[in-house]
What does this fold into?
Amino acid sequence: MELTLLGTGAPLGLPRPDCPCAVCALSRGPRVRAATALLVDGALLLDLTPGAALAAARSGHSLVAVRQVLLTHPHDGPAVEVPAGLPTAGRVPDGRELTLISGHRVRAVPMDSPGTGYEVTSADGETLLYLPPGGAPAGLPEDHRVPYDMVVADVTGRPDGLARLRATGAVGPATDVVAVHLDHDMPTGAELDRRLAAAGARAVPDGTTLYVGEYHEVPDVPRRTLVTGGARSGKSVEAERRLETFPDVLYVATGGTREGDPEWAERVGLHRERRPASWRTAETCDLVPLLEGEGPALLVDCLSLWLTDAMDRVGAWDDGTWADGGQSALRERTAELVAAVRATRRTVVAVTNEVGSGVVPATAAGRRFRDELGRLNASFADECEQVLLVVAGQALVVRG
It folds into this structure.
C-alpha cells in the first residue's frame, strides 16, 4: 500500500499565518508543513485540504484516480477549492466499514474527541491507522491481536493516544509510527526528531511517499536514560516526556513527604498534575529491588534525593562518622545501585542534579555531598545508553 503525505502539519499549517513565534520563524524550506492529508494508492484521499491537487503534483502524483474522499475532522482553515472531478468528501459513521472499488476496506474508528479515525486495509492485507488532530482511539478492542503496519497520528498532541495503542497491542515493536498534525507548540528540526525518536516515532517532510508494510527501522528507544541539569532547568519535564507514550509507568519519588513544608507540597503537587492518570507512584528510596524486578518502565526522580537518604542512613554528614566507616558504607550503597542499573531489564529514566558548576559549598558536609553526587552521576551515566543535559529547558544529548 502506497501512502503519500500531501501535508503533515496542523490544520492551519506550519508556519501559521502571521505568527511571530520562534518555531514559525524557523519553519522554512523543507520544514514548511501544509495541513495533513493522505493519498492512499492514488485512490483514497484522507482529508481534503487547501492546495491538495498542487501538493499531489509536487510529489509526482495526481488526484484524477481518487474514488473516495473521507474527512476526519471539520476544516476550520482557509476555504478549500475542490478539484474538478473529485468525489464529494464525507465522513463515515463510527464503526461503519466501506469496501472501495480499489479493493481497500475502510473502517471508521471512534475517537475520544470530535473527529473520526480510519483503519485502512489494502487488498494485500497491509493495515494503516490514521487519526485526526487531537484525537485518540476510543473504540479499539482491549486485545488487538495483530498490530497495525503503520500508524499516522497526532503523536505530539496526544502522546497518551499512542500509549493507549501500545497497551492494546495495536502498536507493536515493528509498527511504523509517523507523526502528523505538527504545530508550532513543538520544536522543529533536530529537536523534534529527537523527541519523536524517544517515543518510537518519526516525522517526514510533506510530499513523502511511504510504503505500508515495507520494512522500516523503527527508532530505537534507549532502555536506560539519565537526565541531568540544574535547578528548575526542566529536567523532570524532559524525563516525563520520554515516557509519556508508554502504556504503563511507575513513577518512583525518592523525596517522600515533608510535613509542615508547604513549598515542598506545592512542588510535589505540580509533578503529580503533569503525570498521565495511568501512571502509578511509589514513594521510596529502595531502588535496587525495583531495578532487579520485572514490571513497567521506571521514572526515578531523583538521584540527588536518593543520595541524601543514603548519606542519612550511613551518617555521612558527620566528619567523624564519615572517616570511621561512613565513606565505605556509602560507596557500597552506590555501587549496589549502579550494579542494579547495569543488570536491569526494565526501561529506566532517572533524573539527577548538576551541583558542581556553582558556588563551592561553605561546609565540609556540603562539599562531601557535591563530590559524592558527582561520582554517583558519573557511575550511573556509564550504565546508560543515553545521557541528556537540560539547560534552560533545552535538552542536549551528551551520549546516545
